[in-house]
Automatic annotation (TrEMBL):
Its cofactor is pyridoxal 5'-phosphate. It comes from Methanocalculus taiwanensis. Keywords: Aminotransferase, Pyridoxal phosphate, Transferase. Belongs to the class-V pyridoxal-phosphate-dependent aminotransferase family. InterPro entries: Aminotrans_V_dom, PyrdxlP-dep_Trfase, PyrdxlP-dep_Trfase_major, PyrdxlP-dep_Trfase_small, SP_NH2Trfase/AEP_transaminase. The keyword Transferase applies. Residues 11-324 form the Aminotransferase class V domain. One of its GO terms (molecular function) is transaminase activity. Pfam families: Aminotran_5. It comes from the Archaea. PANTHER family: ALANINE--GLYOXYLATE AMINOTRANSFERASE 1, AMINOTRANSFERASE CLASS V. This is Alanine--glyoxylate aminotransferase family protein.
Length: 376
């Protein structure tokens, strides 16, 4: 549509017309066959993207609601250890502090997790581990498999935030030992904000806390979800379910492997452009950590302000993200998630490059050409 801004952020992201149109319909009974079929379609389509055979439930609430559901259902009064190397790992730790005895194992944002400290905490009796798989605030992909292995070795529950990786990158919740995994609707699935999905293992069901949140009580979701047709325990955001079902079907049609490959290729193109410009990525990579494939965090060169760059890019009809909290003014972030493709990425890179030049920064080379070589 005319005058629409292209959102090239780590969510929300542009929505396909099919998804938008799915919301434009009359209300229905959310205790009937039609809604139950919508819910069931979502669950069926989501399982391969989670990499799980566990039960999945949809919550009428954003990813943060799913974070709270995860911790509030199994973490009450327990020793929780949270791995933190970005804003969302910090959020999990803050939620954990509301429910249990929290220990936050912090790294500098964008730097590798301290797995040795996690092993020590588990040896000292930690019962629940939380970790963000894809920390978009710092553009780093964290080692879920290794964290899950440590948690399972010490018989601890593993809560994995896959909000910005499920549906866009490789996730294997069951193989990685993720007892609870979560995703948000407005990220890699390119649906409206306001829904989240959560998978729950048998081990997690066995260790449910006695006192759980009322609205986010997973036992209530399980009881309602077992009905024929499927239901939610409380009134769901029905139009969002229709939109999310359409987004899940689009992802299913594209295919898991194709979808993952597309996201990685687009991220590779952004990284190639940054290297050509002579700019560094924020995250520190090692054998276990790598840059995110759904959001690239790029460090600003000296003399370029966050507000000037992002406002300049927005004047071209494109919106990118800045840094959050302690990273504010230090980085800008380009999303490569959801329904975007080469044309959107190239347009974004051309806008960023042109704005950098207008602000007085001379790129080392043509980033758009470097990206194009990756994409063709």
């Amino acid at each position: 549509m005319q005058n629409e801004v292209l959102l090239m952020m780590p969510g929300p992201v542009p929505m396909p017309e099919r998804v938008i149109n799915a919301m434009s319909r009359q209300a229905i009974n959310h205790r009937g066959e039609e809604f139950g079929g919508v819910y069931a379609d979502c669950v069926r389509a989501l399982k391969p993207f989670f990499g799980t055979e566990n039960e999945i439930f949809l919550l009428s609430g954003s990813g943060t609601a799913a974070m709270e559901a995860a911790i509030g259902n199994v973490g009450v009064g327990r020793k929780i250890v949270s791995l933190v190397n970005g804003k969302f790992g910090e959020r999990l730790a803050e939620i954990g502090g509301r429910y249990g005895d929290i220990t936050a194992i912090e790294s500098e944002w964008g730097h590798p997790l301290r797995l040795e400290a996690l092993a020590e905490a588990l040896e000292n009796g930690a019962e629940v581990v939380t970790m963000v798989h894809n920390e978009t605030s710092a553009g780093i992909l964290n080692p879920a498999a290794e964290v899950g292995k440590l948690a399972r070795k010490h018989d601890a529950l593993f809560i994995m935030d896959g909000i910005t990786s499920i549906g866009g990158d490789h996730v294997a919740a069951d193989d990685w030992g993720a007892d609870i995994a979560i995703v948000g609707s407005q990220k890699c699935f390119a649906a409206p904000a306001g829904l989240s999905a959560i998978s729950v293992s048998d081990r997690a069901w066995e260790r449910l806390s006695e006192k759980r949140p009322y609205y986010l009580d997973l036992k209530a979701y399980r009881k309602a979800g077992s009905k024929k047709p499927m239901e939610t325990p409380y009134t769901p955001a029905v139009p969002l379910f229709f939109a999310f079902r359409e987004a899940c079907l689009i992802a299913e049609e594209e295919g898991l492997d194709n979808r993952i490959a597309r996201h990685r290729r687009l991220a590779d193109a952004v990284r190639a452009a940054a290297a050509a410009w002579g700019l560094k990525l924020l995250p520190v990579s090692d054998s276990l950590h790598s840059p995110s494939n759904t959001a690239t965090a790029i460090l600003y060169p000296d003399g370029i302000s966050d507000s000037d760059l992002r406002s300049g890019v927005k004047k071209t009809g494109i919106q990118i993200a800045g840094g959050q909290d302690r990273l504010k003014g230090r980085i800008f972030r380009i999303g490569t998630m959801g329904a975007v493709g080469p044309s959107e990425v190239l347009a974004t890179l051309a806008s960023v490059q042109g704005t950098l030049q207008k602000l007085g920064y001379t790129p080392a080379a043509d980033g758009v050409s470097a990206a194009l070589e990756v994409l063709v």
